[in-house]
Amino acid sequence: MKKIEKRIPPEFGQDRILEIVMKFRPPLIVALIAIMVSTIGYMLISHVKLLKAFYMTILTVTTIGYGEMWNMTTKGRIFNILVMTFGVGSVMGYSIAVLINIVTSGEVKKIVRFRKMVSDISNLKNHYIIFGLNDYVIHLTREFNRKNIPYVVISDSEKIEEFARKNEIKFFIKLDPSSENTVRLANIERAVGAIVAETEDYKNLAITLTVKNTARKLNIDNFFIFSIINNENFKEKLKLVGADYVETIPEITSKRIASLAEKPPIFGEKSFLEELLFGEETFIDIEELLITPESPVCGQKLKELNLKKRFGITVIALKKENGNILYLPDEETTIEPGDILAVVAPRNTLKKAIRIFVKRGVLSRGVLLKKKLKERENGLE
Q: What stretches in the chain show pLDDT beneath 50?
């Protein structure tokens, strides 16, 4: 695949830096003229050599002022007063005023910060690109921070820097989220997927379309787009333009409330089961395990795997390749290629077991994702 070119926007580009630097041209010209005239004046009036005259000029216009370098005449002192008056004003006053103006405007700092941010993002991998700046994104980034999932937030809002600072968001880009170049600057080539969660659904539609088209142009496989919208009427539209999973905020909220209403936390403020499975201090995890065709466990029965005794793993469901699901499958159930096992186990134990399973052709979602992303990365090289 050809190397992907990413374009720094003009407002942060080399031309803009040059434009800012060129603001120093007028004071520099004035300073050079003042120094040249002063040096020649000292030479003509006081009859001193070039180096001595130039040295006196620099001492005067920079306000260092070691004193007279030679015995000056009245005419020489009058000229020296003029050098101090006009020379200091043109060289020091004018130059400092221009410098202060550039520094206080914050343009240089803004450009440097943006370019460093883009550079840092280019080193990310297996991250998510989040579009939006709202309460949903705040809670989402908090969860990502807690789970150590890397991400980049994109928004054209003027509040994004303050938003990022308050919510400990390390990587963000303040550009048009519906621009293909913006998506490329977010390092889509190495990202797992995108989460589109703008407040306006029309924006979500445009962004989803842009992200999907960008991924297609770059031949990026296994890239997932999740869209969170407000209006259910946009659900099918978003799927049509490429979203893999679409949920409305009312849907998410209603499902949560309905779940609590059906089984209210009567034993306390929070459901013990939810805390056990999804709480911040949980040690239990649920995982899906794919049986690959080359796995030696194909043809074996569940009892032969002895997952409970060996790893403390409980198989709660088994999905056959034809879509049939067996809940709490019998120990006599035979494992076949393409089967997916839904298992529950202590998190640390499950991690250790997965490392063993990989060698036997049994892949978890995380392992399979890393494998696919590695293949994609190799294809981009």
A: 1-3
- Cβ–Cβ under 8 Å, residues 88 and 60: yes
pLDDT tens, residue by residue, 256-282: 777 777 777 666 656 666 666 556 556
Burial environment of residue 353 by CB neighbours within 10 A (0 to 12, 13 to 18, 19 or more): buried
- CA-CA-CA-CA dihedral for 109, 110, 112, 118, to nearest 10: 160
The enclosing H or E element of 104 equals: helix 95-105
Backbone angle region of 142, left / alpha / beta, with phi > 0 → left and psi within -120 to 50 → alpha? alpha
**Could you tell me the strand order of the sheet in which 245-248 lies?**
172-173, 151-154, 127-131, 191-196, 224-229, 245-248
Beta strands in the chain (DSSP E): 127-131, 151-154, 172-173, 191-196, 224-229, 245-248, 284-291, 314-319, 325-327, 340-346, 362-364
Residues 103 and 220 in one domain: no
DSSP letter string over 109-122?
A: HHHHHHHHHHHHHT
Tokens, residue 61: 């216009």
In one-letter notation, the amino acid at residue 114 is F
58 and 156 together in one domain: no
Domain boundary among 238, 254, 270: 254
Task: Please give the pLDDT value at position 104.
Answer: 66
Q: Which domain holds residue 48?
A: 16-107
Predicted local confidence at residue 3, as pLDDT: 47
Amino acid identity of residue 193, one-letter, is G
HEC profile for 51-72?
Answer: HHHHHHHHHHHCCCCCCCCCCC
Integer Cα distance of 228 and 249 in angstroms: 7
What pLDDT shows up at residue 274? Answer: 64
Mean pLDDT score of the chain, rounded to an integer?
84
CATH number, domain of 234, equals: 3.40.50.720
**Shared-domain flag, residues 239 and 143:** yes
Q: Are residues 83 and 173 in the same domain?
A: no
Closest C-alpha to 51, from 42, 60, 62: 42
Can you tell me which residue has the tokens 């978890």? 364
- What are the Cα distances from residue 362, in Å, to 4, 72, 173, 358? 35, 94, 39, 5
- 220 and 291 belong to one structural domain: no
